[in-house]
Amino acid sequence: MSNHLLSLTTFLPILGVLLLLFIPKDSKGVLRGVALAVTVVTFLVSLPILTGFQTNADFQFTENVPWIAAGPFAMRYNVGIDGISLWLVILTTFIMPLAVLSTWTAVEEKVKEYMICLLLLETGMLGAFISLDLFLFYIFWEVMLIPMYFIIGIWGGKNKIYAAVKFFIYTMVGSLLMLVALIFLYFKGLEAGFTNFGLVQFFDLRLDPMTQTWLFLAFALAFAIKVPMFPLHTWLPDAHTEAPTAGSVILAAILLKMGTYGYVRFALPLFPDAAHKFTPLIATLAVIGIIYAALVAMVQEDVKKLVAYSSVAHLGFVMLGVFAFNSQGITGGLLQMLNHGVSTGALFLIVGFIYERRHTRLITDFGGLSKQMPIFATIFMIVTLSSIGLPGTNGFVGEFLILLGSFESGLRWWAVVASSGVILSAVYMLWMFQRVMFGELDNPKNQKLSDLNAREIAIMVPLIALIFIMGVYPNPFIEKMDPAIQKLIAQTKPTGMSAQQMPSMQGLPAGHPAMPGMAVPAVEQTAPAAENPNEVK
Amino acid sequence: MDMITIPAVSMTPILPEIFLSALAMALLLINVFVPSKQKSYLGYISFIGVVVAAILVGAGWGGPAESSFSGSVVQDNFATFFKMIFLVSAGLAILISDQYMEREGCNHGELYPLILFTVVGMMLMAAGTDLMTIFLGLEVMSVALYVLAGFNRANTKSNEAGLKYFLLGCFSTGFLLYGMALTYGATGTTRIAKIAAIVGQMTVPSANIMLVAGMLLMLTGFAFKVAAAPFHMWTPDVYEGAPTPMTAFMSAGPKAAGFAAALRIFLVALPTLQVEWSQVLWVLAVLTMTVGNITALRQDNIKRMLAYSSIAHAGYALVGFAAGNGTGTAGILFYMLSYAFMNIGAFAVIILIGKKGESNGSVMDFAGLGFKHPVLAVAMSVFLFSLAGMPPTAGFIGKFYLFSGAIQKGYIGLAIIGVLNSAASVYYYLRVMVYMYMKEPTEDFEWTRVSAPIALSLLISVAGSLIPGIVPSVILQFAEQAIKLI
After folding, report:
1. In sequence order, which residues have a C-beta less than 8 Å from that of residue B138 and are 6 or more positions away?
2. Which of A208, A406, A517, B406 has the most CB atoms in a 10 Å sphere around its CB?
3. Touching check for B484 and chain A: CB below 8 Å?
4. Is B390 close to A146, i.e. CB distance below 8 A?
5. Helix (H, G, I), strand (E, B), or coil: what is residue A68?
6. Is any Cβ of chain B less than 8 angstroms from the Cβ of A146?
C-alpha cells in the first residue's frame, strides 16, 4: 500500500510550527490551543495507518523517492512501517496531545517557543520511527536532540543547564560513532553492489564476523546510551528530573524507545552474529541495570527521580527480552516498550500534577494525600500497579513474556536474577505510593490540595484505559507485531546455524506467547553465544 | 640561445580578476573624493562589483577548461567553484563591514578596495596552474590581508594583529617559496602539469630527496596559511585583534584559497607522492582538530572561541584532504562554501551584539538573547548548529562528506578521531546557546540597529547554512563536477 499518510503524519507538526510562528507570543491560550489541535489532528491522521495496516511482515505505507545523490552516495527519502514500528508511531501521536495538555498551566513562560519545541520533537521522533533509509534515520535521530535539549534547558528545573548539556553530549558521542559505522556499512554495501542507503537491502548483507563486531559495537553504543543501559544511564535521571513534565513524559514514553527500537530495527538484523556474540554482555548489563536501578530508586527522596530510575530498570527488561532472540522475548520487549510508554508516561504526568500544586517532589513533603484527593489516589494507584506489572494491567503481560522468553533462551540465569527485579520494583513503587498517599495528612499545605480537575482527568483517562486494555486483551497489539517479529527472528539467526535447526520458526500461530516447541530451538539457538562470554571480555 | 617567444594570450580566463582589479583601483581613486560620512557607498559599489564578478565567474561554469598565459592560469570548474566561495566570503564581509567600521570609527574607504584585491589574489591561487602564479596570488592576497587585519589603527589589538599576521605570514611565505624552489630544482619546471609529468616518470619519486623536501615545505607553507596545527599559533591573536568583519572574512576566504592551491598542487602535480603527503596530512588533521577544539573549550571571548574553532574546522577539511579521494575532495569544496556562510553569519551576529571598542565580546554577553531578539538568536542557533555539524544543516553534510572520504580511503581511525572532535566541539557551541536561551540577561539590552546590509548578510548566511543541509544535491553535484577536472 502506498500513499503519503506517513509523511503527512510526520510533517504535520512542522506545519503546526509554521502556524505558531504567526501567533503573537502573548496569546498563550491560542498558542496552546493550536498546538493541541495540531497534535490531535496528527493523532487522527495517524489512525488510518493503524486501521489500514495489513498484518504481515512487509513494510507498509512506503514511500521511496530520491533525495540526495552526489559522489558515491545516494540517499533516498525512504519511509515505511512494519509491525515493530507501527505501535511506536501510534504511541507517539497518542502521547503528544496528552503531553501538550499536561503543560496547559505548568508552562507560563515562553509558551510559544515551548510549543514549537514540542512539535519539532514530534516530527523528529516520528521520522526516526518510519525511516527505512539509514541516512534519513540518522538525520531524524539527531534532529530530535535539538528540541529536547531546549525543552530541558529552558523550561527545566534548578540544574537544567547541566542536565541539558549532559543529555546532548552523551547522545551526540554515541550517535557520531554510529555515523562512522553507518558510512562504513554503506561502503561495504557499495562493494556488494548496493546503490543507496536503503535499510532493507542491508539485511541480506552478511558481513564477516570482525566487521560485524565493530559495526555492532558502534551502533550498540549509540543505542545503549539512548536506552539507557547501565553504566551509560547517568544522563537520564538528570534529564528526567530537570525536564518539565511534558519533557519527562516524552522522554520516558517515546525518546527512550529510540534506543531499544534501534536494537530491534538496526543492530540485531544488520549484525546478527555480533549481536549473538555480545548477548551475554548486554544481558548482564541489562540485568545489572534492572537490579541496580531498582535499588537506587528505593532510596530516592524525589518522586521524579524515583520514577526516572524505574525507567532504567524497565528498559533493562526490554533489553533482556529483545536479546532472548525468541518470539516471546522480543514480543515481550516490544510490548514492554509500549507499556513503559504508557505507564511511565502516566507516572510522570502524576508527578507533574502534584508538583504543580505543591512545587515540591520530595516524598517527605507528602503523606495522606489520598484523603484529600481521592480521584488522584485512584488513578495513581492504577498506574503504580501497572508499573509494577500486576496481572490485569499492561505491565504484567510484557514482563511475563520477557521473563518467559529469556528463561527459554540461553539467558536462563539472567532471567532468574531479573525476576528479583520485579519484586524490587513492587517494593520501591508501593513504598513510595504509601509514603505519598497514605498515613497522616499532617502537612497543612497538603490539606488544602485540590483534586484533579477535568483537564487532568481527561489526560489520564486514555492512559488508564490503555493500561487495562493492554493488560486484559493484548492480542490485537501482538497480532500486528507478530509477523515482523518472526521475520526479525529469522533475520537474526546466526550464520553458523543451518535452517533445519529452527523447525518451529515457520507456520507458528501468531500471537501466542507460550508456544510449545519453541523452547528447544530457542535454547540451542543462543547456546553458542552463551558459550563464549570470555570473548566478550 | 632560444628566442623568447610571446605566446598568444587569452584574457577570458582572468576576466573576473581583471574586472575586480580595475574596480578596486577605481574605488581607490574615487575614495579620495568621497566625504568620510558617505564611505558606505563604496561598500555598495564593491558589493555590486562582487555580484558582477560572480556572474562573470559563473558564466564560465561547465565549459571546457581554458588555459592561458602558457598554462599558468586556467579557467576550470575547480577554480570557478572556489572563486565563488571567495566571492561569497567577500560579499558577506562587505555587507557586515559598514555598520561595524562606522561604530569603531574606522570607516576608511580603502577597506573595500583592499577586500577586492584580496579576492583577486585568492582567485589567482585557485586558478593558478603554475607554482609562480599561485605564489603571486598568495602574496597579493596576503599583503592586502595584513593591512586589513590591522585596519583599525586606533586599536592596539588590531595593530598587534596586523603586525603578527605580517611577520608570521612572511615566515610561512618563506617556507612555501623554498618548497616551490626545491620542487623546481627537482623537476626543472614550475608548471603544475609538467611537474606531474616529470614526477610521473620517476620510478621512485619518494626517493628524490629534493622533491620530497619541496613537498613538505610547501605543505608547511600551506599549513600556516590555513592555520593547521602546529602552525596555527598566530590565529587566535590575529583573529581576536582584527576588526570583526575582517576576522570573519579571513577565516573563510583565505582559508579556502589555501586549500584550493594546496589541492591543485598535491592532487594534480604530486599524486604519485600521495602515500607520503597523505600520512603527513593525517597527522596534521588529527593535531589540528584536537588542538583547535580543546583550546576552544576554554575560551570566554567569542572571537577567540571562533578562532580556535576555525582551526578545528581546518582540521576537518584536512581529513578530507588526507583522504585525497573524490569524496573527501568534494567534501572540502562543499565544506569551505558552507563554512563561509555559517562562520561569517556567526560573526555578523557578534558584530550586532558587540559595542564600541570591541567590548561585549564575551560569551556571557549573549545571555538572554534568545528571547530578547528571537530572530537574531535563531539565526545564531542555525550557524552554531551548522558549525557543530548537526543535521539538517550544511555543516553536517560537509562533515559527512569529509569523514566519508576518510572512511572510504580506509582511514577509520581518522574518521573516529574526527567525530569525537565534533562531539567535543558541541560543548562550546552549546555554551553560546546556553547563554542565549537558558540564562537571564545580565543587564538591559540596548538594541543595536540592524542596518539593511547586515540584515541581508544574515539572510544569505542562514539560507546558505540551511538549504544545502536539507537539499544538498545541487551543490554537491557542483562540487563533484569541480573536482573532476583537476
Report:
1. B121, B125, B173, B176, B225, B257, B261
2. A406
3. no
4. yes
5. strand
6. yes
Chain A hits for B391, Cβ within 8 Å: 138-139, 142-143
- Is A403 near chain B, with CB under 8 Å? no
| Residue range A82-121, pLDDT digits in tens | 888 999 999 999 999 988 888 888 787 888 888 999 999 9
Tabulate helix, strand, coil % of chain B (nearest 5).
80, 5, 20
B472 in A contact zone (CB under 8 Å):
yes
Question: Chain B within 8 Å of A137 (Cβ-Cβ)?
Answer: no
A157 to chain B: which residues are within 8 Å by CB? none
CA distance A315 to A311: 6
In three-state secondary structure terms, A458 is helix
Among B residues 428-467, those touching chain A with beta carbons less than 8 Å apart: 430, 433-434, 437-438
A interface test, pick of B297, B426, B478, B480 with most A CB neighbours within 10 Å: B426
Q: What is the ipTM of this complex?
A: 0.88
Across the interface, whether the CB atoms of B419 and A180 are under 8 A apart is answered: yes
Q: Which helix (H) or strand (E) holds A64?
A: strand A60-70
Going by their DSSP bridges, the two strands A73-81 and B66-68 should be labelled as unpaired
Chain centroid to Cα A490, Å, comes to 23
**CA pseudo-torsion sign B380, B381, B385, B391:** negative
Give dist(CA A404, CA A47) in Å, integer. 32
CA A521 – CA A527 distance, rounded (Å): 10
Q: Inspect the interface and report whether the beta carbons of B326 and A71 lie closer than 8 Å.
A: yes
| Helix boundaries (H) for A192-231 | 199-203, 209-226
Dump pLDDT digits (tens) for B49-106.
999 999 998 888 877 888 888 888 888 888 999 999 999 999 999 999 988 888 888 8
> What pTM, to 2 d.p., does this model score?
0.89
CA distance A502 to A525: 8
Please spell the DSSP secondary structure of A367-393, one letter per residue: --HHHH-HHHHHHHHHHHHHHHT-TTS
Q: Does B407 touch chain A (CB under 8 A)?
A: yes
B195, containing H or E segment: helix B192-201
